[in-house]
Amino acid sequence: MDPGFRDDKVGTDMEKKIVKPGQNKLSGETSPYLLQHADNPVDWYPWGDEALNKAREENKPILLSIGYSACHWCHVMAHESFEDPQIAEQMNRLFVNIKVDREERPDLDRVYQTAHQVLAQRAGGWPLTVFLDPADQMPFFAGTYFPPTSRHGMPGFADVLMRIDEFYRKEHEGLRKQAESLQAVLTQIEAPAGEDLPAATVFKQARQALEQDFDRRYGGFGQAPKFPHPGFCQRLLRHWRATAREPNQDVQALYMVSHTLGQMARGGLYDQLGGGFFRYSVDAYWAIPHFEKMLYDNGQLLALYAQAWQASADPYYRDIANATADWAIREMQSPDGGFYATLDADSVDDDGQKTEGAFYTWTPAEIKGLLNDDEFLAVETAYGLDQPPNFENSRWHLNLRQGQSPDTGLLADARMKLLKARGQRTRPARDEKIICSWNGLMIQGLAIAARALDRDDLAESAMRAANFVREKLWDDEDGLRSVYKDGRARFPAYLDDYAFLLNGLLELLQTRWDSPLFGFCLTLARRLVDDFEDRDHGGFFFTAHQHEKLLFRPKTFTDEAVPAGNGVATVALQRLGFLLGDTGFLQAAQNALRSGKSAIERYPPGHATMLDALEEHLQPGETIVIRGEAEDAARWRKAATMAYAPKRQVYLLSGDDEELADAFADKRAGQGTVAYLCTGHVCSEPLTTMDGLLAAIAN
Question: Considering the entire predicted model, what is its pTM?
Answer without folding.
Answer: 0.94
